[in-house]
Design a protein that fits this description.
alpha/beta, 8-stranded antiparallel sheet, 7-stranded antiparallel sheet, 19 helices, 27 strands, 36% helix, 23% strand, binds fructose -6-phosphate
């Protein structure tokens, strides 16, 4: 949730830290801070400010106000202690000799705090992180690494840590457990970061830290140790993401840019995997015999990725006839899931770092399942712990509300469904070829939907004053409505719910009154008549209905709905991929008209690395 960046080199650290933090702000944005080693015998220079990074940046004149070539920076999403200057990171020890930035939660901080207070250590913040700085200082007797190691033996919880000590002004120590942290190898400088986008301007050579790894960075190199403090060599990976991909490039918001990038992202995701009417996955982890032995597929994910799972259930069951269950990752590990070696568990995660999804993965593995994951961020924790990872190749997604992450996940699930369906012989070659041909046309059709965005903007201008909006749909349209509703509520703060249309009469219809805005998703051909009936029902109770449907159904829909949003006709299983685009745009324009902070909605963060 929080963002960490660290630099050790020969240039002024502070401007580099602030620039890195600006790329991590999507991870947390309630306060920010930096600590820089001012030089031998000079102590640490620590600066923190509540609010957006901009506040800190102005305070430090873009970094020019702080001298020193080694430093750590942090952008916070508060867990323990409200956003405030004092609760911001870096947290320092009582003598201000040790400074720490932290992402994660120290579970036994109350106990540790009591222990330290008994020894006379005063605390100033409400954070769990302050105990880390104080504990390291408590154990410090001239050897920073030994003190860190001793502190780690006392700490329980999850953490990525960047640690500075005034006595070692040319060193930075980094530690990781259950929270992302990467090492960046530069020329005459080295880095730590929560996410590669923070250091992409300086290096593309990175190493992924594993749980328990400790790294000591100087400008000359990086030495890594495992949890037993034995030296280890880290593999270096070259990252080929474009720097521009993580910048707004003239667009008003990352979300808008990422919505428009979807056709291109889809092409990158689809084209290397579809050849001659068939799907190819390199080194697929399951042999045809193993695929035939699968008795159940469990899709586990959070938020929008879970909504992909809801669509995926229909797609996978239709094409494989294998039963599919979809579970929220936060529930999965506490429900004693019925999972064994005949279960294929599919974890879907854009970031690859969502703590609940990671915990679900480990729970499923413990129960003997094979783990397949759909992930965007290369080298992320979920990717590395899966038997097989299918990368979405959407490029960096910066806006907190996912768009291109969702769309690419969706097509990858479809590709997986075709692949498994063909292997199981539940889909004919002809059927698969026709579906894949249409899939290849999808990015062009998506471009056509995007080209019609002025109409959506107009509809948003008629709708943004509503305080509650309902989304209705059946089957695939219901699954799509769930995502449309989440997009709207998370960025516009309008209360919104998605219902399976058939459930209306079982309670929800009592909420429909004169003027209620209903977004009716009616794209799925086989259930179109039923979608129409439900629209007529809510209209009869005074609802104002915006209907999403395919071009071939526009006329009939226009006869009952207040306004219609058309999408091109396509294969039934691909409808959610086209239908979601107007819903994303609708949410975007509504939020824009309400003056919301679209890329950084309140209380949210991009990568949810706490439970
Ligand atoms: C909503 C959104 C979230 C994420 C969820 C899971 O727009 O982005 O609901 O989908 O936090 O994140 P990942 O996919 O990174 O595991």
């Amino acid at each position: 949730m929080c963002g960490i960046v660290g630099y050790v080199g020969q240039e002024a650290a502070c401007p580099i830290l602030l620039e890195g933090l600006s790329r991590l702000e999507y991870r947390g944005y309630d306060s920010a801070g930096v600590a820089v080693c001012a030089g031998a015998g000079e102590g640490l220079s620590v600066h923190k400010a509540k609010g957006r990074l901009q506040v800190l940046s102005e305070l430090l004149q873009g970094g020019a106000a702080v001298q020193g070539e080694v430093g750590i920076g942090h952008t916070r999403w508060a867990t323990h202690g409200a956003p405030s200057d004092v609760n911001s990171h870096p947290q320092v020890s009582q003598s201000r000799r040790i400074a720490v930035v932290h992402n994660g939660i120290i579970e036994n901080y109350v106990e540790l705090r009591a222990f330290l207070m008994e020894k006379g250590v005063p605390f100033v913040s409400e954070t769990d992180t302050e105990v880390v700085a104080q504990l390291i200082e408590y154990f410090y007797a001239g050897d920073l690494l030994a003190a860190v190691d001793q502190a780690l033996h006392r700490i329980r919880g999850t953490y990525a840590l960047g640690i500075l000590c005034a006595d070692c002004p040319d060193q930075l120590v980094a530690v990781r457990k259950d929270n992302p942290l990467i090492l960046g190898w530069g020329e005459g400088c080295n880095f730590i970061a929560s996410d590669v986008t923070a250091i992409l301007r300086h290096t593309r050579e990175v190493s992924y830290m594993n749980d328990g790894d400790i790294a000591v960075l100087s400008w000359e190199g990086i030495q890594c140790y495992n949890h037993l403090m034995q030296p280890i060599a880290k593999e270096r990976v070259h990252v080929d993401w474009e720097v521009d991909a993580a910048e707004k490039g003239g667009y008003p918001h990352f979300m808008f840019k990422e919505i428009l990038e979807q056709p291109q992202a889809l092409r990158r995701c689809i084209s290397p995997r579809v050849r001659d009417g068939a799907v190819y996955f390199e080194d697929f982890c399951l042999s045809p015999e193993e695929i035939r032995a699968v008795q159940k597929i469990y899709i586990v994910a959070c938020g929008s990725s879970y909504h992909v799972g809801m669509v995926g259930k229909y797609q996978l069951e239709k094409l494989t006839r294998v039963p599919v269950e979809v579970a929220l990752a936060s529930e999965f590990r506490y429900m004693e899931p019925i999972v064994d070696e005949h279960t294929l568990v599919l974890i879907i995660s854009q970031s690859g770092e969502t703590l609940d999804s990671m915990a679900a993965l480990r729970e499923a593995r413990k129960r003997g399942a094979k783990i397949l994951s759909i992930v965007n961020v290369v080298g992320s924790s979920i990717a590395r712990e899966s038997d097989q990872v299918l990368y979405t190749w959407a490029g960096p997604e910066i806006a907190v509300a996912t768009t291109k992450g969702y769309s690419t996940q969706l097509v990858l699930v479809l590709l997986l469904a075709v692949y498994l369906g063909r292997t199981l012989d539940r889909v004919s070659e002809e059927e698969s070829r026709a579906l894949l041909e249409e899939l290849v046309r999808l990015p062009d059709k998506m471009e056509a939907v995007l080209a019609g965005r002025d109409h959506i903007q107009y509809l948003a201008s008629q709708s943004f004053h509503h305080s509650s909006i309902f989304f209705l749909g059946r089957n695939l349209d219901y699954a799509m409505g769930l995502e449309g509703s989440l997009k709207l509520k998370e960025i516009s703060y309008i209360h919104s719910e998605a219902y399976a249309s058939g459930e209306l009469k079982h309670g929800t219809i009592s909420l429909i009154e004169e003027g209620t805005l209903v977004v009716a998703v009616g794209t799925y051909g086989p259930l179109f008549e039923k979608a129409m009936s439900n629209i007529i029902e809510v209209k009869a109770r005074g609802a104002n209905v915006l209907a999403l449907t395919t071009e071939s159904h526009v006329d009939r829909m226009a006869a009952v709905a207040s306004a219609v949003i058309p999408i091109p006709d396509t294969h039934d299983l691909l409808l959610p991929s086209l239908g979601i685009v107007p819903l994303q745009l609708f949410a975007y324009y509504v939020a824009l008209m309400r003056g919301c902070d679209i890329d950084k909605p309140r209380n949210l963060a991009k990568s949810v690395t706490v439970e």
